[in-house]
Design a protein that fits this description.
By secondary structure, this protein is of the alpha/beta class. The protein has eight helices and seven strands; from the N terminus they run E-H-H-E-H-E-E-H-E-H-H-H-E-H-E.
Length: about 210
């Protein structure tokens, strides 16, 4: 993803939260003139107020209705967003709309076929219970634990949505991450062994690069 960025890239961080992507991509996305070409969107207004990059243009909006003109961005990034989408088809249409021709969409999201997201989906209707579980394992506050749907969280679902809106899959891959379910050394070792036993298509994360035709 970083290799696709240039000083002139116009980038949309979809679900930008309080920071993250802008901070991690180094000089391409860290402050100054480069960040002026970035924009962030998030439906949570408190996260936008507390965003750690003061130079980032931010908008409070849902992913199904992005407040930008068509063909605005060279790159759209979504990290830990697809699992929360109530209407993924509408979001994918909006992503394709705001991208220029040949633009790229990069994403990272949980894989719904992995046992942990399956468990998360099962308890999703019990949102307060889910908040307690997340707080216990990840130390995340209730205000930062959002409802999940997992409607765009398999390679098949993502590929079908992409084709419908004119996005071409360049690369989609499964990625393991034992730390996803590790709060101490013992659970980490158990998670490592579990990841080794799972089929490759059950790895806990899906990462991908889609391109607008």
């Amino acid at each position: 993803m970083a290799s696709a960025l240039t000083a002139n890239s116009r980038v949309l961080d979809l679900g930008c939260g309080r920071g993250g992507i802008v901070e991690r991509l180094g000089p391409q996305g860290a402050g100054g003139e480069q960040t002026a070409r970035w924009a962030g969107v998030d439906p949570d207004i408190s996260s936008l107020w507390e965003h750690r990059s003061g130079n980032l243009r931010r908008a409070c909006a849902n992913a199904e209705e992005l407040p930008f003109s068509s063909g605005t961005f060279d790159i759209v990034i979504a990290s830990w967003v697809l699992e929360h989408l109530p209407r993924p088809a509408a979001t994918f249409r909006e992503i394709a709309r705001v991208m220029r021709r040949g633009g790229s969409f990069f994403f990272l999201t949980p894989n719904a076929t992995h046992p942990l997201p399956r468990l998360s989906a099962a308890i999703a209707p019990l949102h307060r219970f889910q908040q307690r579980i997340v707080a216990h394992f990840y130390g995340r506050g209730a205000a930062d634990t959002f409802p999940v749907t997992y409607r765009a969280n398999t390679v098949g679902a993502i590929s079908r949505l992409s084709v419908r809106v004119g996005l071409r899959p360049v690369e989609i891959a499964w990625v393991d991450d034992p730390s996803y379910f590790a709060c101490d050394q013992m659970t980490f070792m158990l998670a490592v062994m579990a990841e080794l036993l799972l089929p490759p298509t059950w790895q806990v994360h899906i990462v991908g690069h889609l391109q607008k035709r």
